[in-house]
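Hey, quick one: can you model this chain's 3D structure?
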Amino acid sequence: MVPLALETTGLRKTFGNLVAVDGIALAVPTGSFYGFLGPNGAGKSTTIKCLTGLMTPTAGTFRILGLDPIVDPVAVKRRIGVVPEDLALFDRLSAAETLSFVGQVHGMDPAQVQSRASELLNLMDLAKVASDMVADYSHGMRKKLALAVALLPAPRLLFLDEPFEGIDAVASRQIRQLLLQYVGGGGTIFLTSHILEIVERLCDHIGVIQKGRLVAQGTLAELRAGAGGARSLEDLFLDLVDAERAEVPALDWLAG
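Sure thing. Here's the predicted structure for all 256 residues.
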């Protein structure tokens, strides 16, 4: 049996009377590319924030790479990489300075930081602008730098919150290829995305959350089998979240 890189039991997060995450039980196998899906407001980002230490769960337990993040948060943070939805970059630093700073925070050898930073900047097509301030970067360039920051310490588990949102096809392809290489090397990815075509292409395991509750989890083949056969991820997703499929009314005034 494949060990789990991430496991939660009864994970719950409330804000007053609002239940954002309602007792979910995630099981993310080591070496998997896990897509965590849900409609807007379903609880995806709140779940990631709980798992990465940005929020404290109201209830439940979880283990990351065999460690308890509540008992030993520093050890967990040294083994994971995170690309949050807001990217959390330092606008007044250059890309090279950003990676150098992150390396120092992780206590990495300066020569190792320089070597890895050079490789990552070249891979992300950012080497020519490595000395430019991050404030001057496009959204796609910022996404690639955020991923480079997350990968620099060679984490064994990556949390990616909407890494493909708002970027062009070239940047999207570069990021996809890099992530597949990462998983191929034994890393584990926990990804949220609204772009179901990319999730279907990349992910081998899927979890679906709706109104804070986990409504499905397993391989894409298992989810399809449970739905009676081969179907697109979009169709499976819409059924799982009980999305209405009403016809979009025609706007006669748009017909010219």
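One thing worth noting: The longest strand covers residues 4-15.
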